[in-house]
Structures are given as C-alpha cells and as structure tokens.
What does this fold into?
Amino acid sequence: MNIIKANINVLTELHDLVQILDDNQYAKELEVFSGSTIGMHTRHILEFYLCLFQQYRDGTISYDKRIRDINLAIDTEYTLDAIKRIKTSIENCHIDKDLTLIGSIDGSSDASFVMKTNIGRELFYNLEHSIHHMALIKIGVYVIDSEIKISDSFGVAPSTLRYKKDKNTL
It folds into this structure.
C-alpha cells in the first residue's frame, strides 16, 4: 500500500463514521474530551489536510495558518463533502513535490522552525495525526452510544495492527 492509498483509507473510515452520526451526536460536548466534541477532533484532522492542499502550490506550508472552519465541527453533511474534496486532492497530488514547512515551536514566543519536506512526507504526518485523533474520536463515540459499531482498526496505528496480527491478539 502506498501513502496515498493509506490516507484515502483512513479518510474513508472517518467518512463512514461521520455518516452515521447525526449533528447532535457530532457536536455534543463530552466530559471525557474536557468539553470538546467528536466534531472538533474531526475538524482538527481535516484542517491539516485542507491547509496542506490550500498552501502547497506556493511551496510553503504552515499548519499554524490553517483556517479554523467551525462548520467542520458542527455540520456532518458539510464535513462529508470536505472529506470527499480532500480525498480528491490526495489522489491528484504529486507526492515528490518539494515544500518548505514553517511551524511554531514555542507558544509563548514567535520562535519557529523552517525545514525542507515534500508532499509525501506531509501526507505521512497527516496520516499519523489523523489516526491519533481518530483514537480519541473512538472513545467519544463509545461515550455517546456504545452500540455504534466502529471497526477494530479505526484509530489504530498500522504498526500496532501488524503487531496484534502477528501476536494473534487482534
């Protein structure tokens, strides 16, 4: 499997989950999330992808400058459309395109870093970032409705899936 297909698969899992939630479940503040919501975690995932594809043509990426779109946190139909657009962008990208990544390294100052990267590396980052937040989303779904069926692989790192398969513990 390549990095494009891996990202598409993870976003498809996210799409499938969002599709079965209603807007109230999606935007419900949860104590386990310190008042955050499934929608907020989903928005966070998607904004990193959207940022990447909105900025990559200029050759410089700064996830700090992502647009924080509240609709991605409250409106499931809007979110499903965004996931479809992101998947199309991933399918049409050139993974070897060189980029410069700029990011903050200290919340109390303007300190930042600059480094060379490329679309493939940033897709790998976004994949890992997505899986991490999907693990949290999975917890939120169980809090909202433990009857909602989520795949065992949802929010689980590929290396963990391989490890469990090798140990027959999945």
Q: What stands out?
A: The first strand starts at residue 60 and ends at 61. The mean pLDDT is 92. Strands lie at 60-61, 98-104, 112-118.
